[in-house]
Amino acid sequence: MNAPAAIPVPVRLAQLHRHAPGTVAGVDWDRLAEPEARRLRELGLDEGVEVELLHRSGLFGGPLACRIGRMTVALRRHVAAAIHVTPLALHP
Amino acid sequence: MNTTPLVALVGNPNAGKSALFNALTGARQKVGNYPGVTVERHSGRMTLPDGRPIELIDLPGAYSLDPSSPDEQVTRDVLLGRQQGERLPDAILTVVDASNLDNHLRFTLQLIALGLPIVVALNMVDLAERDGLKLDPEALERELGVPVVATVAVRRRGLDALKERMAEMAKGVTKIRPSAGVQHDIVLLQRRARQIATAVTVSETAARRWTHRLDALFLHPVAGPLILLATMFLMFQAVFAWSEVPIGWIEDGMKWLGAEVGTALPDGVFRSLIVDGVIAGVGAVVVFLPQILILFAFILVLEATGYMVRAAFLMDRVMASVGLSGRAFIPLLSSFACAVPGIMATRTISDDKDRLTTILIAPLMTCSARLPVYTIIIGALIPDRAVLPGVGLQGLVLFSLYILGVLGAFCVALVLRRTVTKGATSGFMMEMPKYQWPRLRDVLLGLWQRALIFLKRAGTIILYTTVILWALLSFPKPPEGSNISKVDYSIAGRIGSGLQTIVAPIGFNRDMALALIPAMAAREVAVAAIGTVYAVDNPDDEAGEASIREQLQKHWSLPSALAFLMWFVFAPQCISTIAVTRRETNGWKWPAFMIGYLFALAYVAAGITYWSAIGLGL
To answer: Which residues of chain B approach chain A closer than 8 Å at the C-beta?
Structure first.
């Protein structure tokens, strides 16, 4: 615990590096519209679930393809920005 | 009273539910509708190993019993015995994707809590194993406390075992009302589902993720859109190139039939009705069956492989710029085949405003019924020469008509989203299923159903309208020895002349005006109508496309023809589309709005085209 840099800091899913998995630390549910939040829960998003950013679509801020658990889901960026992720320790 | 046990087939989208339904019932399926809603009711018969029959209904895919679309609402209402026109199922057969247990089990837990007898099909175990996931179906059975059978529906594996378990379940069936209410706590169910999924997973290795590799290509920021464009190009190219030969067969068949019947029947009104009305009219439409089937084949394959969702993903940014979501891409692409299934496919769009906008612009996608009209007029009046090596002028004009429809749709969506369907930007959240090789059987079954629907239309609506039109065109007969043409003297000719005063400013002649009326019943009838008009006027000509072409060249000017094509890009669609819009939007308000704006658009566009063409000296 004497090396604070080793404690992973949660980042937003939208800012995660591609193919660098993490676990969901928290979701700003109030930043999402009610149906959006519900569908997101139905797609299995919850604290502690493993997520990974897979693809960003094209230019101009298109949607993102993310892995939630074992499922691939397309999300718009503002949704991905509401999801906080703790990056998993990566192999050096 | 129907005593055949009713089993509801339920599951998440992408769990392979329809494949299981096809595998269990084969071709013994019925497609109907639930009263009051347009959700299709797919039902089929299957026989248990002990010989008892079962009626299986394929309920729309859902994520939970808390519906967020009209489709999911039907699923919930049927399971709770609340759906009008459907009895309460005696039992449930639920399908889960083996590689997506932690998610799909949540819905299963909700279903089990309903208290109806239930069997779980642990489907696509082969794909899960391919992805390095090994599961223990027996452990799952213990955890859930209900029968579980491992299946691979597309390869018909595990079906016998599944039927055995269903037979056991059916033995003890007495009518049970769902005992417990619906469990609504998604988070709680989800956590339990994850626990179970972990408990039944024997081993999980780093997966050979084919899907991820393919996605790296298909969702690539540069390659992805190019592949999508190439796929669309190939699709439309195929619609024309691959259909030539079968169209030739049908044409020859119709000509032969017309000639045979013509010689067999005595000269007179009846022969004219059969040869000029029925065979020429219906024949002119049936020749387009190959093109429609090729288009549907592409759409079915794109859907079955999982690529369609990728296309929606790639298109989301573009769609968002006009206030729609990538989800709208799928119904809009289907609308190129026919607006009716396209509009019905909007039911997966959860946002109301988004869905309404998509419905309103769906008719602007060039449906396959417009193809006959386009191809015949282009073939007759646009010179067949190359503008660039390999690019013909005719093809270019046809392509522009498609593009015009799409551009028109985008502009309309943009305007609508800022005015009548104003609202918060809708979201885009979609599960992206694994890629799968499409099963020929399932595609053929889908095509067969489409072909039947089309031929039924040709045999009913199109037949009636062509016969009525023939009658209107043939009576009253001009007096003997008069030199007025038969058509001019007929009732239809007089209606056409009246209508012509409205459409003359945009360059339409009487025959065009005449074709507009039956085209409202079904667009492709416009061709049949033109065919019938000229067949009645010149009974000595052999019926068929060639003679329509010559007649068009004789009677139509190029500016008029272009204006007519433009009319067909925008004008309100067939009655079926209006009817389905009324059902989907629950009233006459939106269909009336749609008819109004499309007519206005068509009139203006045709007028501009006509006068520009005249101005350019075409």
So the answer is: 63-64, 66, 68, 99-103, 106, 133, 186-187, 190-191, 194, 211-212, 215-216, 219-221, 224-225, 309, 312-314, 316-317, 320, 326, 350-351, 424, 427-432
Say what the pTM is: 0.77
What is the tens place of the pLDDT at every residue in B569-595?
998 867 778 877 887 887 889 999 999
In-domain check, residue B178: yes
Domain count, chain B: 1
**H or E element: which one contains B100?**
none
Preferred mutation among A32, A76, A78, A79 to probe B, highest tally of B CBs within 10 A: A76
Which two tokens mark B199?
């408990």
Could you give the C-alpha distances from B410 to B319, B330, B361, B494, in angstroms and in order? 8, 15, 8, 39
Say whether pLDDT at B463 is over 80: no
> Can you tell me the distance from the alpha carbon of B345 to that of B36, in angstroms, rounded to the nearest whole number?
17
Please write the tens of the pLDDT for every residue from B105-120. 999 999 998 888 899 9
Q: How far is B21 from B27, CA to CA, in rounded Å? A: 10
Q: Which residue intervals of B419-524 are DSSP H helices?
A: 440-457, 463-474, 486-489, 491-503, 510-519
CA A34 to chain CA centroid, nearest Å:
19
Query: Could you tell me the CATH number of the domain that includes residue B22?
Result: 3.40.50.300
CB B172 within 8 A of CB B87: no
pLDDT above 70 (res B352): yes
- Ordered by where they begin, the domains of chain A are 9-87 (2.30.30.90)
Whole-number Å distance between alpha carbons of B392 and B384: 7
* Cβ atoms B148, B215 nearer than 8 A: no
Alpha carbon distance B46, B143 (integer Å): 29
Residues 6+ apart with CB under 8 A from B231: B302, B307, B311
Compare CB distances from A74 to B133, B220, B429 and report the shortest one's residue: B429
What residue has token string 């299963």? B108
**Domain membership flag for residue B346:** no
Per the structure, the complete domain to which residue B110 belongs is given by: 6-208
* B313 with A63: Cβ contact below 8 A: yes
What would the mean pLDDT of B65-88 be, rounded to a whole number? 85
Q: How far is CA A68 from each of CA A17, A23, A42, B266, B432, rounded to the nearest angstrom?
A: 15, 10, 11, 73, 11
ipTM of this predicted structure: 0.88
Eight-class DSSP state of A17? P
